[in-house]
Amino acid sequence: MITFTLNNEQRSVDVDPDTPLLWVIRDEIGLTGTKFGCGAGLCGACTVHLDGEPVRSCQTLVSDAADLNITTIEGIDGKAAKAIQTAWEEIEVPQCGYCQSGQIMSATSLLAQNPKPSNEEIDEAMNGNVCRCATYVRIRKAIHHASDLMEA
């Protein structure tokens, strides 16, 4: 039995310790906002926060998350998260939307740590989050807008 906190709720799962966290979140717990993209940690669609840091859940074993705090797109909260969500809507970032939960998780982590990032800092933080629809310009614009919303 592996125990962790998921979206502020204590959870225990009886799975193989080598199971990727992504599949525990999706298949065992039933939260489907975290997406499977590449399975190799290269696309960012599966990004969640593990003790506040963005990680690729397809490459994180559930045993590595034991006794830690996991936040998914369904549980994201706080000033940075609300600003990102508002900016995403106002800038109309999503096209197909598949990658957006991972994009939002990475962007929220960035703003929580650096409320006024430069273009270079945004690019660095978002590196590895792939958008097949190429909404990168809108993503960067939305992160700057969210930063401004946080100041207001």
Distinctive features:
2 domains; Ubiquitin-like (UB roll); alpha+beta; five-stranded mixed sheet; DNA polymerase, domain 1; single chain; 152 residues; 5 strands
Molecular structure report:
The protein is built from five helices and five strands. The protein has 152 residues and is α+β, with helices and mostly antiparallel strands. The protein folds into two domains: 2-71, Ubiquitin-like (UB roll), CATH 3.10.20.30; 79-151, DNA polymerase, domain 1 (Orthogonal Bundle), CATH 1.10.150. Helix 2 packs across helix 5 (136-151). The chain is globular, with a radius of gyration of 15 Å. It starts with a strand and ends with a helix.
Per-chain topology:
Blueprint: E1 2-6, E2 9-13, H1 21-29, E3 47-50, E4 53-56, E5 69-71, H2 79-91, H3 100-113, H4 119-126, H5 136-151
Parallel strand pairs: 1-5
Antiparallel strand pairs: 1-2, 3-4, 3-5
Helix pairs in contact: 2-3, 2-5
